[in-house]
Write a structure and sequence with these properties.
Elements (H helix, E strand, L loop, with lengths): L6 H6 L1 H5 L5 E6 L4 E6 L3 H12 L4 H12 E3 L5 H6 L7 H6 L2 H14 L16
């Protein structure tokens, strides 16, 4: 059985909770034969991407939007990179660099870092006789 969290537990972790740094993860990208670093999206970015995914007119923009904001190495926002690839919109770089399946997978990893689809699970109550 999992431990119940108490007020004392939260207070003991107060500094850690208040100063939490975004989680980062390194991913291997086959088409580039190398690794990239992503970080968990800010709440607003994650929610915007999830809203886009639910909107039939914008669903194809959700993953590139999320990936653009979560890939920190290499910096997809770099003006020279954007210029050299001829991007008209900043997020265009995502589809130019990564394959479609990679974009979806990178976005999925980013959401997992932020606790979407992981981090919380149901705990079955013990059956009393």
């Amino acid at each position: 059985m999992s431990k119940k969290i108490t007020i004392a537990d939260l207070l003991a972790q107060k500094d850690k909770i208040k100063k939490k740094e975004p989680k980062k993860q390194t991913l291997f990208v086959a088409s580039l034969d190398g690794v990239i670093t992503i970080q968990e999206p800010e709440r607003a970015i994650a929610l915007e991407a999830l809203q886009m995914a639910q909107d039939s007119e914008r669903e194809d923009l959700a993953d590139p939007y999320l990936v653009y904001h979560c890939v920190v190495e290499p910096n997809l926002k770099d003006p020279v990179l954007q210029s050299e690839f001829g991007c008209t919109e900043p997020t265009d770089i995502v589809d130019m660099i990564f394959r479609p399946g990679e974009v979806s997978m990178i976005g999925g990893f980013a959401l997992k870092l932020a606790g979407f689809a992981t981090g919380v699970r149901a705990v079955d109550e013990e059956i009393k006789n």
